[in-house]
Model the fold of this input.
Amino acid sequence: MKKVLLFVLLGLMTACGASSETAKGNAEIDGEQAKAAFEKAFPAVEVSDVRAAPMAGMLALEVNGSETVYMSEDGRFIMIGKLLELKDGEVVNPAEQRLEKVRAEGIKTLNKDDMITYAAEDEKVEVYVFTDISCGYCRKLHRHIDEYMASGVTVHYLAFPRGGPTTEAAASMRHIWCAQDRQQALSDAKLNDTINKAELGECAKPVDEQYELGLTFGVRGTPAIYTTEGKQLGGYLTPEDMLKRLD
Done:
């Protein structure tokens, strides 16, 4: 029950990017003690990292792969939500700033042959979109794919079956990733509910790999759109709105 409550609260968080600095004065932290205290309170949740938080007296704990929660240094208090910082007149989100760096590095490692790409002839910008063929807004976005390309936006699709690798959507997406014409197979699935039944093999591996990558990027739902620099543009966006945000 505690795990469910924690993840429900985490699911209410939204992201906005900015820059920040680590708080001074708490560089020496007892990460193991904080980790043990948190996992004792939430035994089904694993803490993967403990670091100094931007706010003095607090620690930042990474849970659920990429989520950040905060704990007082004495282990008594836990804060679940966005920690925002007022810096030089701007409102910044330190957790999102950290994720941007993770995403930018992750994007650099991607093999474009493992993605399904709709390339603009006169390319001005590239975006990376985590998608699920069973997602209504993903289908709505894909209806504009020709408009994105005409606007100079190259769309790289990555697989993110929202329910996880064991779902029917994940199984269907493996077939799509193994299709001879993956662009057509993805369009058929999203727009016509027609699933390609291509033979599976090594070609199916990117579906599971990209799902795991999405978790480290902080993907909560689909579509999730990112720039090459790791900034999150949002979920469903019309071509016009996407260009405005890119500008």
User: Anything to note?
Assistant: The mean pLDDT is 85. Residues 87 and 221 are 29 Å apart (CA to CA).
